[in-house]
Design brief:
By secondary structure, the chain is mainly β. The strands form 3 sheets. It has a 6-stranded antiparallel sheet with strand order 1-9-5-11-3-2, covered by helices on one side. The chain has a 3-stranded antiparallel sheet with strand order 8-6-10, with no helix packed on it. The longest helix is centred in the first third of the chain and has 12 residues.
């Protein structure tokens, strides 16, 4: 997992052209004014999911991992904790892998990092992660999750 800010995103262009497209899109578009839902950046290789929700208690969050996509989480408004744990330490899955959703879920043992407005976090297939966790209180969050294909 990589955590930083959008203002320093050029540092992560080394991850490849698809990541560069994701960050360029974030720099050029105001997520707070975009319609909720999916927007293609480069077809199924790079697309954005614009989300709005109230941050949640840990009991209402999922600890997940992907096989085909890395996630670029960007907080446009609000703040939330993002849980993280290496996939090799996530334990046995509690669900079967769903190839359509590109997700499998695990128990909730992880560490957390606080993401605030302007922060980004990149999670790769080897990173189990738990988005949307509230801090002390529930707050409204406007966020982008850009899916970047890293495997077939």
């Amino acid at each position: 997992m990589v955590v930083g800010t959008l203002s320093n995103c050029e540092l992560y262009y080394v991850f490849g052209e698809r990541f560069q497209k994701a960050f360029e899109f974030l720099k050029k578009n105001d997520i707070t004014k975009m319609e909720l839902g999916r927007h293609d950046i480069d077809g199924d290789d790079v697309f954005i999911l614009v989300q709005q929700y109230d941050s949640k208690s840990i009991d209402n969050c999922g600890f997940e991992a992907h096989k085909k996509y890395a996630d670029v989480h960007y907080v446009a408004e609000g703040f939330e904790y993002l849980g993280y744990g290496p996939l090799e330490r996530a334990g046995a899955p509690i669900t079967e892998y769903d190839p359509v959703a590109d997700a499998v879920f695990f128990e909730k043992e992880c560490q957390f990092v606080l993401l605030e407005k302007g922060d980004i976090a990149i999670v790769f297939p080897q990173d189990a992660h738990m988005p949307q966790k509230r801090a002390l209180v529930e707050v409204p969050v406007r966020k982008a999750c850009i899916k970047v294909r890293v495997a077939d």
